[in-house]
Amino acid sequence: MAIVQDLSGNSPINLGTDKHISAIESVNRSYPVTASDTVDIAQGVTEALNVTTAGAYKVTYGNGVVDTVNLAAGIWHPINVRRVWSTGSVATSGISAGY
Question: What does pTM read for this prediction?
Answer without folding.
Answer: 0.76
